[in-house]
Amino acid sequence: MAYLLLFTGKGGVGKSTISAATALHHAQQGLRTLLVSSDPAHSTDDTLGIKVGFTPTQVAEDLPLWAKNLNAEEMAGDFFGKMESLMEKSFGSLPGFDSSMLSDLSNFPGMDEAFAMEEIERLCASADYDVIVFDTAPTGHTLKALSAPDYLNTFLLKVLRMKAKIENLKGFFIKKGDTSKLVDLLEDFIKRIERLKVLLRNPEYVSINLVSIPTEAGFAECLRTVRFLDNMKIPVQHIVVNQIIPSFTPDVWEIAPSNPAVALLKTEYDIQQPYLGRFKKLTSSHPIRLVGMTRLPFEPLSARLVDVAHTLWGERGLNFQITPSLEVQEGSLILHIPYIKNAKWTKDNWTYRFGDSLHHIPLEKPDAKITRKTDKKTNCVTLTWEE
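The structure assignment produced for this chain is given below.
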C-alpha cells in the first residue's frame, strides 16, 4: 500500500507546482514516487519539462520518479457507455423507459473526478510505489467527487425499482433483461469510492493538503473545503498559502512613494495581511499546519523545481513521515505493506487482496525462502525474501 499525498485548491494557486515539488522531494529520498494529475490543464508537462502521458513516464533515469495524467473524462465515458448498453438490455422493452436518466447521472458535477479518485484508490492499493502524489482537479470537482456515492446510491435505487417492476410484469411482450451485471457495476464503483473515503480518513498514511493564496476568493474557497472535509471526517494536514509578498526591511518600504515598483509591492503586501491573519486563525482552531510560500523570483519549472522542493519541505514547511516499504539488506529483500487489516493472502504469497482489489507484488524470486510477519500494532505485514 502506497502513502498518499493529495493536493487540492482553486485553479491558478500553484497547486501543480507544489505537487510536483513534493513528488521530487520524496523521489530524492529514494522513495518510488508517482505523480498523478487529474487537472484538466495538464500543467505537469510544463512543470517537469517532459511529455507526460496517460501511462507512467519516468522523469529521469537516475531518479525513482514517475508521472502520469489521468483522462478522467475518457474513464467516465467508458463506464457510462457500458452502463448504457446494460440499461438498454435490461430495460429497453419496459414501457415508459427513459434513457435520459443516465444522462442526468453522467452530467452530475464532479462525476469525472470520481473516476480519477477511483483510479487513485487502485494505485494506492498496489505495491508498485511507495508514494502517490495526487494533483487533483480544482477543489469544487474534487469535493463533488467525494459526494458521488450518495448520488449513485440514489440512482441505484431507481434501477432496483425498475428491476422489481420488470419482474412483476406478466405481459408476453416484455423482455426481461438481466439486471445483475448493471447492479454489480454500480455497486462496485460505489464501493471503490467509499473505500477511498475510508483511506482519506487515515492520517497515518494519507496527507490532505490545501493550496491557496492570500485573497478573498482564495480564503473563502479554503474555508469551504475545510468545513466540507470536517463534515466528512477527513482531516486536513496542511494549508499551503502561496504567492506571499515578503516583508522587506523598513528602508525598502520607505522608498515606496518615489518608486512605483516598490509602491506596487507595498500595496499588495498590505492587501494580503488581513487574509494571512484569517488563515492563521483558521489553522489555530484546527490541527492544521500552516505553511507559507513567498512569491518566487523565478519560474518554478524543470531544473528550478528542486529549489521549490527544498523550501516547501524545509524546517518550517510540510511535514509528513514516510517509511520506505522496500529494504535491501545483504542476502535478503524486505517488503513492508501497510493497511493489512483487510488484506487476504493467496497461497503462493505473491499476490494479496485489499478490499476487492487483487494485486501482484512485483518482486518475484521463485527460489527464495519467504517469511511473513504481521505487526498488529501498525497494521503492517513484512515479507522477507532470503537467498
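Interim note for the steering committee: The chain has two domains: 1-322, 326-386. The two ends are 25 Å apart (CA to CA).
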